[in-house]
Design brief:
Layout: E1 2-3, E2 5-8, H1 24-37, E3 41-45, H2 51-63, E4 68-72, H3 77-86, E5 93-100, H4 103-110, H5 114-129, E6 134-140, H6 147-160, E7 164-169, H7 176-189, E8 197-202, H8 209-218, E9 223-226, H9 240-249, H10 251-254, E10 256-257, H11 265-276, E11 293-294, H12 297-305, E12 324-325, H13 333-342, H14 350-364, H15 372-383, E13 390-398, E14 406-413, E15 418-424, H16 428-440, E16 444-453, E17 462-470, E18 483-490, H17 493-516
Parallel strand pairs: 1-10, 2-3, 2-9, 3-4, 4-5, 5-6, 6-7, 7-8, 8-9, 11-12
Antiparallel strand pairs: 13-14, 14-15, 16-17, 17-18
Helix pairs in contact: 1-2, 1-11, 2-3, 5-6, 7-8, 12-13, 14-15, 16-17
């Protein structure tokens, strides 16, 4: 199958997003992630723009060996010299040079005639060719240019040695139909076009960057220039994750492929969002928080029965573990039962579940979404059966940069017995959890831990959420749930973490006791 090359310009065009400036170390970190993803070309920066950018391109060129490393230049000697210097260590270097081709750019930005710009374009390609074999030429603002002049420029730069011709819709002006027709016109009218790869570089000013890039592919483009999360100048660029997954999901239509490891997409998206401080909007295609979330009861029922009823992409294909069921007033019985089972509630009596469902609807009418803590409160209130096996009575931790983190805990068992123990760990929370485990003595593994402030100021309340995974080895009941969530809140974040962990452990103990009887071992934990 024919291949489309992925040219990632997150480190160059993406960094031009307001407020997205990256340090050299951050750029190298993203470059490593792009290499793991398997993009074909990384545009590492604009070397002439600053000593830091030149240094970043140098370091990326030296470290990244499995991708072509590209440096951007204007059609100027000093720019090309800087790029050549920065790319010296690259295994596969590429210089990306060019000029505007629209009347707006020629007249107001470059102040050149068409003939002068054409002459400069040919010179720039030939000069860059002295340093590297792989030269890409950009015809800036091609979307608003006279097609005949554009064809003339492309013929000339290909004859001069350009291996890739970049056709940018610099202002995001065109529609997919227009853009596709332009790429088709280049294929049909530019002599020597078979000697070069046609690349498309589309901006998102009218929200059509991805659609335009894909229209370019349909009409002969074999390189897409894109950024992670679609970041870039103004409204951004073609989103890498959208184009890659569109080509993969609709391979039957496009008939081409991008050979990247899509399971790396979600982690890369989060990395770029964190380092650039640009959040991903919840409804963003592919990587948004809601991309695989279902709130409607009809959708939830369909997805739980067969994922493909409402999902055309398996979330695991991009590195997301599973779809998410969002509980709200629009959710149905299937979605609620599914989430309760995930939380460890075994509701075998239908009447029992119906009472919980009625309470759920009452609460859902008053809140936008129902979280796990809400569900646990509803179940505990309706079923009157969640009695903690242990309660936290005392906690003391010692920590610091010159101290071994140590925790002492005292728990009261439901039969009145008070138990105390201590342990040390990598930090105060780790030490405290180990001390609790020494008392409770039920094998489990901490699967998730998060803490957030739910109020402001120095006396802010910290809310901790944990998920623990039970080890049911040796337990006869194979159908028991394995994952239990817990929540806690306190102005002391270590106490908050302790409450959350105790909450999860007590649910684990309750489920085990209900399923296997009420006998106890020496520490008061239910026995198998």
């Amino acid at each position: 199958m024919d291949k489309v090359q992925i040219f990632d310009t997150t480190l160059r065009d993406g960094e031009q997003s307001p407020g997205a400036a990256l340090t050299i170390h951050e750029k190298v970190t993203i470059a490593r992630a792009l290499e793991r993803l398997g993009v074909d070309i990384i545009e590492a920066g604009f070397p002439i723009s600053s000593p830091g950018d030149l240094k970043a391109v140098q370091l990326i060129s030296q470290e990244i060996r499995n991708c072509t490393i590209c440096g951007l230049t204007r059609a100027r000697k000093e720019d090309i010299d800087a790029a050549a210097e920065a790319l010296k260590g690259a295994a596969r270097p590429r210089i990306h040079t060019g000029l505007g081709v629209s009347e707006s750019h020629l007249q107001y930005k470059l102040r050149m005639t068409r003939e002068q710009a054409l002459e400069r374009a040919v010179w720039a390609v030939k000069y860059a060719k002295q340093f590297v074999e792989d030269v890409q030429y950009y015809a800036e603002d091609a979307g608003r240019a006279d097609p005949l002049y554009l064809f003339q420029v492309l013929e000339a730069v290909i004859a001069a040695g350009a291996t890739v011709v970049n056709i940018p819709d610099t202002t995001g002006y065109t529609s997919p139909q227009e853009w596709g027709a332009l790429i088709k016109g280049i294929k049909e009218n530019v002599r020597g076009i078979e000697k070069a790869t046609i690349s498309v570089h589309c901006h998102n000013d009218l929200g059509m960057a991805t659609a335009n890039s894909l229209a370019g592919v349909v009409n002969g483009a074999r390189q897409i220039e894109c950024t992670v999360n679609g970041i870039g100048e103004r409204a951004g660029n073609t989103a890498m994750e959208e184009t890659v997954m569109a080509l993969r999901t609709r391979k039957d239509f496009y008939g081409v492929e991008a050979t990247v490891d899509t399971t790396q997409i979600y982690a890369l998206s989060r990395l770029v969002s964190e380092l650039t401080s640009i959040p991903v909007q919840p409804n963003k295609a592919i990587v948004g928080a809601n991309a695989f979330a279902h709130s409607s009861g009809i959708h939830q029922d369909g997805v739980l029965k067969e994922r493909t009823t409402y999902e055309i992409i398996n979330p695991r294909d991009i590195g997301v573990p599973d779809s998410e069921i969002i509980l709200s007033a629009r959710s149905g019985r299937h979605g609620l039962r599914h989430r309760l089972e995930q939380l460890g509630y075994l509701l075998t009596e239908e009447g029992q579940f119906e009472e919980i469902y009625k309470r759920f609807l009452d609460v859902a009418d008053k809140k936008k979404t129902i979280n796990d803590r809400d569900l646990e409160a509803i179940v505990a209130d309706e079923m009157k059966l969640f009695k903690p096996t242990y309660t936290l009575e005392y906690l003391q931790v010692t920590c610091g940069d010159h101290a071994i983190p140590t925790a002492t805990v005292q728990l009261r068992r439901d039969d009145g017995v008070v138990l105390c123990d201590a342990d040390h760990g990598d930090g105060p929370v780790d030490a405290m959890y180990k001390a609790i485990n020494r008392i409770v003595n039920v094998p489990n593994k901490l699967a998730e831990f998060s803490i957030d402030a739910i109020s402001e100021g120095m006396d802010a309340v910290g809310k901790t959420a944990v998920r623990i995974q039970a080890d049911w080895t040796g337990v006869e009941a194979k159908s028991l749930p394995t994952v239990f969530s817990g929540y806690g809140a306190d102005t002391d974040i270590v106490v908050s973490a302790a409450k959350a962990y105790m909450h999860a452990l007590n649910k684990l103990l309750w489920i085990r006791k209900e399923a296997l009887g009420n006998g106890r071992n020496g520490n008061g934990a239910p026995t198998a």
